[in-house]
Amino acid sequence: MARKKFIAGNWKMNTTLEEAVALAKGVADAVGKQSDVDVAVCPPYISLSAVAEAVKGSNVKLGAQDVHWEAKGAFTGKVSCAMLKSVGVTYVIIGHSEQRQYFGETDETVNKKIKAALAAGLLPIVCVGETLDERKGGKMDAVIERQTRGAFVDISAGDAAKCTIAYEPVWAIGTGETATPQQANEAHIFIRNILTQLYGKETADGLRIQYGGSMKPDNAKELLAQSDVDGGLIGGAALKAGDFAGIVQPK
Ligand code: 13P
Questions:
Q1: Which of 69, 101, 198, 202 is within CB 3.0–4.6 Å of 112 for a Cys-Cys bond?
Q2: Which atom number of ligand 1 is nearest to the Cα of residue 166?
Q3: Using an 8 Å Cβ cutoff, are 87 and 48 in contact?
């Protein structure tokens, strides 16, 4: 099955309001008219509304970097699915390794967030990936399997089909170290096999698996040429419109 490529920019904790609007306009100008690749930008919460305005009328969709699973109430600092919907968000990144490493995200909270997002009509980008120690210790497969199965507990095939998976080896994030195209593809095939066990071949074959970890214009083409690499979740290189565009349309 042909899967349309999907490139998303995770701006992390970068850009002021002004910088976010300028970057979003740059992205919309560069790749907002093409429709060969699905494109999204995920700015910090405070810039979501303004970025929604900046990409209006283009094919660039809006994503958020996280969400809380509760609908509303006394959860200081948190943002709900309904709030994200109300400012025009389509996608939400869930379970990013930085959330797991620094902010106590677990497979269980990932699962709760995915369920809440799907119930609200948001499309989750679910992140999985091993650390260097886990890879060196031969635990890579076990970690990825635990994270993938944990994310999808009690989620139907129909709902799973609305998700994107992002394979982000932690050792390749922001380090300049990239998984080789072969390493990335092997991990993606491993993840797709787990999804096949969970949901059957048709659903698993339809799901997009992005690669994330030091993806740049000069390595994007080879990574994206792999059979099971269906896009990218881009950190550092998403902060310059030209670099991001060079990943959406690699030369
Ligand atoms: P870098 O592209 O900066 O390595 O970050 C990847 C990432 O974490 C995207 O979510």
A1: 69
A2: 10
A3: yes
Q: How far is the CA of 57 from the centre of ligand 1 (A)?
A: 27
CA-closest residue to ligand 1 atom 5: 235
pTM metric for this prediction: 0.98
Which SS3 state, helix, strand or coil, does residue 35 take?
A: coil
User: Domains of the chain (ranges plus CATH)?
Assistant: 5-248 (3.20.20.70)
Measure 173 CA to ligand 1 centroid, in angstroms: 5
Q: What is the DSSP string of 150-198?
A: HHTTT--HHHHTT-EEEE--GGGSSSS----HHHHHHHHHHHHHHHHHH
For residues 91 and 125, is the Cβ–Cβ distance under 8 A? yes
- Chain segment 160-178, per-residue pLDDT in tens: 999 999 999 999 998 988 8
Cα within 13 Å of Cα(212), Cβ side: 32
| pLDDT tens profile 47-102 | 999 999 999 999 999 999 999 999 999 999 999 999 999 999 999 999 999 999 99
The answer to whether residues 91 and 126 touch, using CB atoms and an 8 Å cutoff, is no
Rounded to whole angstroms, the Cα distance separating 246 from 9 reads: 12
State the Cα–Cα distance between residues 184 and 135, nearest whole angstrom: 13
Q: Which amino acid is it at 171?
A: W
